[in-house]
Amino acid sequence: MKVLLIGLSHKTAPVAIREQLSFSPASLKSALTHFDTTHHQQAHLETVMEGVILSTCNRMEVYATVRDPQKGTRAIIDLLSRACDTPASIFAEHLYMLEDEQAIRHLFRVACGLDSMVLGEPQILGQITDAYEAALSQKAAGTVLSGLFRAAIHAGKRVRTETRISVNPASVSSVAAGLAQQLLGDLTDRQVALIGAGEMGAVAVRALIQRGVSEVTVVNRTYERAQILADAWGGKAATFQHLPRILVSSDVIIVATGAPHIILTQEMVEQAMNERPQRPLFLIDIAVPRDIDPDVRRIPNVFLRDIDDLQSQVDDNVRERASEIPLVEQIVVEEVTQAVEWLMSLDVVSTITDLRGQIEELRQMELDRLFNKLDLDERERELIATMSHRLVNKILHKPTLQLKHEAVHGNGAEYASKVRRLFDLEPTRKPATLPAKPALTPQEPQTNPERIRQCQNLEF
Questions:
Q1: Which domains does the chain have, with CATH numbers?
Q2: What is the per-residue pLDDT across 181-219, written as a single tens digit (0 to 9) for each?
Q3: Which residues are catalytic?
Q4: Angstrom distance (rounded) from CA 30 to CA 36
Q5: Which of 106, 177, 264, 285 minimizes the number of CB atoms within 10 Å of its CB?
């Protein structure tokens, strides 16, 4: 059995392709039913045993356990094509395919924020958790993928606890929201105004809403455009003629228009502050050319940050995050090593369990036979039973360690088979196997030209 990853991301596919392979909650649920671990009779997925689908704005990845990688690849691409109603020829060249420990390492690096568009962004860990839980709900994740995803989530939590890769904001909007929170404290009851209806300003407002802001006013030259955006946040709409009142009532004002001239002058801000001298006003100017007169910085209790200020902070934060990469990579190495060893140990776990079960059954039979022949009190019976239990454990201890050792080095299946023959244990299903020496150096996802050529030659 192989662990297989098939996917695409912001590194290999433009948004026009990624959006065609995105899943809604309903389509995700439907697709996962084809991986149901309790029913493997679907002809198109007969070689696929388990599956988890990770679908975000920046990536779509299918993690699966398969009997045959080539047949599994064909089945999964066929499923994606049908589930997303998109011909495979459109997206096949953007896919990357990884197997076994390379697929496992990629999952762990994604969970730790190393493969994100914004280094260290924390949302991906929650998205991985949601993807795993969705697969569980549809019985699509079995023993192998459950173990790997739980381990990846654990690694992601370690990274966010033991390093600072996710601590500082790494986007202009997040930095702006963070600075507002530092200045004003709790943002729950603060009033925010957005002047202009562009995307940059909207992103900044969303970042503030995530920090607790509930009152938003959108100001635009046309009321209709302001109303559309305000409705999305349950806010209010206004036109430029209401700016004097909004300057007085707002705590945070984000200005992002396409105007070629100043929108907020020093005089306008001074007049507003005369009515609210003790309340600080935080102004965020993310327009180019600037919308706010830089001289407003001279006004007491007025705090202005323009795009250069914010970008400088972003650059500092990104550099600080990047300095944490070696620590994060070390955690990935440690966690992947453990996961690979665990996966390889599956070769011998059932054999060890069956062997101990057989020996325990023989021990119990001999104890019963002995107790029937001897007149022993309860204390004597306990002593003999304890001695026999310890003897069995000591006899099996070294063989158990040796079996696990061989499993870690890729020989588990061979040794498990010999033990089953020697002790006449019932045969078991063919266990999972991985390469003996996992390469644990960081690796970026790569498209696989040879595999893609094979996929393109298949009839979908």
A1: 2-167+444-456 (3.30.460.30), 172-308 (3.40.50.720), 340-422 (no CATH)
A2: 999 999 998 999 999 977 778 888 988 998 999 899 999
A3: 57
A4: 11
A5: 264
